[in-house]
What we know:
The complex is a heterodimer of chains A (about 450) and B (about 550).
Chain A: H1 2-17, H2 26-33, E1 51-52, H3 66-74, E2 79-81, H4 91-100, H5 133-142, E3 150-162, E4 168-180, E5 200-210, E6 218-224, E7 232-237, E8 242-246, E9 275-287, E10 289-290, E11 297-298, E12 310-311, E13 313-314, E14 320-321, E15 324-337, E16 344-352, E17 360-365, E18 370-379, E19 395-403, E20 408-417, H6 430-436
Parallel strand pairs in A: 2-15, 10-18
Antiparallel strand pairs in A: 1-2, 3-4, 3-20, 4-5, 5-6, 6-7, 7-8, 9-15, 11-12, 13-14, 15-16, 16-17, 17-18, 18-19, 19-20
Helix pairs in contact in A: 1-4
Chain B: E1 3-8, H1 10-20, E2 30-46, E3 50-66, E4 73-85, H2 87-90, H3 113-117, H4 125-128, H5 130-135, H6 144-148, E5 159-169, E6 175-183, H7 213-216, E7 220-228, E8 237-245, H8 266-270, E9 273-274, E10 288-289, E11 291-295, E12 305-314, E13 317-327, E14 332-335, E15 351-354, E16 357-369, E17 374-389, E18 395-411, E19 422-433, E20 445-454, E21 462-471, E22 476-485, E23 491-501, E24 507-508, H9 510-514, E25 520-521, H10 526-534, E26 541-549
Parallel strand pairs in B: 11-15
Antiparallel strand pairs in B: 1-2, 2-3, 2-26, 3-4, 4-5, 5-6, 6-7, 7-8, 8-12, 9-10, 12-13, 13-16, 14-15, 16-17, 17-18, 18-19, 19-20, 20-21, 21-22, 22-23, 23-26, 24-25
Amino acid sequence: MLKKTLLSAAIAMTVATGAQAADVSEEIIQQSFYPYANGAPTFEGLQAGMTINQGNVEQFKDVLDPGMYRFIKNGDTEIKVGATTSFDLHPSYVEATRKYSGDVALGAGHGEISPTVAGRPFPAEPSTDDPRAGEKLAWNYKYGYNWGDSAAIAPFYWTMRDMESGKKERVLKFNFHFLNFTHRTSQEPYPKIEPNPSELFRGIYAQVLEPFDVKNTQLLIHRFEDDTKVDNAYLYLGFQRRVRRLSSGQTTDAFLGTDVMIEDFEGYNGRISDMKWNYQGTRYMLMPFFNHNELALDAETHQDDDGYQVVAFGGKGGCFPNITWQLRKVYEVDSVPVDENHPISKRTHFMDAQTFTIPRTVVYDRKGDMWKNWVIGQAHPDHHLPVNKGTGVSIDDAFTMIDIQANHCTTGQFKGIVDPEMSPVDKFSVQNMRASGN
Amino acid sequence: MSKTITTTFSHLALGVAAALGTGIALPAAAAETTWAGFVENATYYRDGVGISKFRNTAQGEFETRFESDTFRSLKLNGVLRGTYDGVYDLNDDEFGKDAQHAYLGQNWHGQDTSTAILTPGVSFPCENDPTLCGNLDGYMDHDENDARFPEFNDKLDFIRELYVSADKELNNGDILSVRLGKQQVVWGKTDLFRVLDVINPVDYSRHNIYDELEDIRIPQWMLTAEWRMGPNSVFDDSNLSLVWNFDKFRPNNLGTCGQSYRILDAGCFFSSSANLQLIPGGPYSQPVPIIHDVEEPNWSLANTQLGMKWEGVYGDATFSVNALTYRQQLPSLHFRPLAPGAPVPAADGVFDIKFPRVNLVGGSIDYYSMDMDAVWRLEMAYTEGEEMPRDTNGHKETDMLRYVIGFDKNIIIPELGTRSAFLLSTQLFGEHILDHEADMPNDEDNWIATVLFKGFYMNNRLSPQVIVAHDFAAKSTVYAPSVSWTPDNHWMFNLGLNFKTGGNETFPWSVASAFGDSSAQFEPLARFTNGPIGVANEEDEIQLTVRYSF
């Protein structure tokens, strides 16, 4: 804890000594990062501890997204309501926002932004009068604190389920790793890792541990600072023992047969410039935020020495995480693919205003019909693994991607660990893929 | 599901340290071992022949990770495999030591003068002909049980892989990595055919060119060392690696006569003889074996093989630059004259098999094209020291240039009933013989084109695909449609067809001319012209594979 405090102080000092524009005002900082400082939002009849189900869902339709409303109304699931809690991001990220975001502006072209160092680039409240408000919110997500400067999910269970029968068809066991090369605030070095000749912004590395037929499959994604540049993606197939380049077409394909596209990772995993972003308004909605250690967990799927257990699933087909939901401030943003051949017509994202994570997304097919529902449950770091306490990372802790047209879902159970030693820079290299593949 | 076992591997850890030559005595290290594997049956039925494969395989893989203060990573990996192919018990009329051949090449062409000059190949000569067995000693001299249980031999092939690897982080953040043991080292970016991927020899007797290379590379005892330098001011990633193959040289296994898969039908050619006793007044009293001796290099330091590779990432391109000194893995036939300068062969055998030293330089690059949303792959190798077959003297040393251009694209085709993208992967594999001669059965330039079209349905659990490969010089084509069904984490069913056209090319043979027929012949040279696809033109099969993984 002391170490983290010192790191925070260090970033504060670092940013303090650089050439700066005017600081972001304290009012904006407070509004952006501490929306519940003056009290939690309320909705008539909604109380912590209650359950929303088929019987009372109409009463709470206004605080539910259309996907969850549909599931509850159909009796596919019910949700338990928890108290709204503040998910404070790491102070170093807040401080970087204060110091660096005062003069950040969008560029003239779609997907362009003025040079940024770290922090939330557009902390001010969005306005429906601003035609590029959605784009600014997308940048806030891209440069959000998300998994912090680096983190790992190890292990990470993906289960493919027949929603009708509840049959578990396949279970994939992964390790996932994330690393920010730039826009770093809390882990040394900051604000960026050098050398970085291609000016990478972020790396995502995933390795399949099980089952045997896809064991050692590895995925590496390099995202560039220049958002107009397409990600470089690499795939290592265990049976070929070779690293192959991926075309971007594969990022919108079913990842290893799951209901999730690579582009869906973390809510949205693509370029800002691949989408037209339309801000629809600010709402207060029930969102999947909870304290992991207070849940009734799944004792079967994962056991380890430190006693960690993953989130349990239930509801129709076992497609719904057994978590609690809390009323939170949300920005509703539509993203429409620029590419007319994209398999979807639109995503509606419900961005959490405090953390800028995207815990809820509704996906529409080319015809405009609802296709998939994407839930990424967020756990408070102080009520999770001890190593995560004080990290200020909203921990992705459970997901479900439900294909309502195919009556099929893929669920995810996480062991998220914010520990820089698990995600060293060389893990995000092509050479590491080859060397790790046997 | 793989199993994880946590145990204490103190002796093994010490052995690992000793093997790495570090001189560091590691303390007893808690070790975590994971196991995985599968059992599989592959039953293939060949048109007009019957069962051609009834292969039953059990494979286990383990990885043991040691905790070490000295190394960032220290682990032991192994792959064990055992196979029983029941085709030699179920279809012993066609395959096995008692299989008879009406004439040489009966399994892929008709008769002509050449098949009268050459005797049929002898199935498993070590079960039927002691002289041939002695001549072939050391190479393609398997007996029937070697084919029935291919991993259980004096080379301990049931140990597919067994190696220890260690990563050491240097003070500057670079990684020094060492891997020692029996292993596969894979270079290059090509599917199906090999350009740079030549460090390990290949066992074509398992299923010609059609099994995954991972399953048919013959692992070798090697030491690999890598210096992973990571990014610098120019490259996003770079790595310098050294490969020392200190194992005793092993050539490609082409399949012994009598086996169900014998690429180019070489096994039967090597166990045939020339009816030179038919020459009136000649010096021969009986047929002359085609092969007199196999000169496999003995183990010596000078006979080991050494390679170096520098690879990296530059912008949107990944690249490698490769150099390797190794031995030709395909046999080269050296003519043995009856007397110095005589154009007729010695009476105790026409050719000696040799495996010449080859030096290779090459490289590979792949590049993602944003405009095409597709990946281009290029791979090239230039060799000196290879020997190519020819009529005169059996061979000629020549420099060779081989290259591959590959193109991969994912395409969404909703009309085909799935939202998943189809993979279209095409390759053009080229070969240029720099010192080509007219009496070489291989064209100076030849190309093989391959197309893979693969689709995914039902969350990738149902996957149909079509592979087509066409050899331009051979005018032969293979079509391999298949569908794979993976109902859960354990079971996999694959049903496929494999049928070929071509195999009709002939090539002039001077010996036939001496027997009064100057027309082009099937034997023995046209096997090279027709290549692995054309020579297998009668091997049309329906193939079912069932696997249970754990």
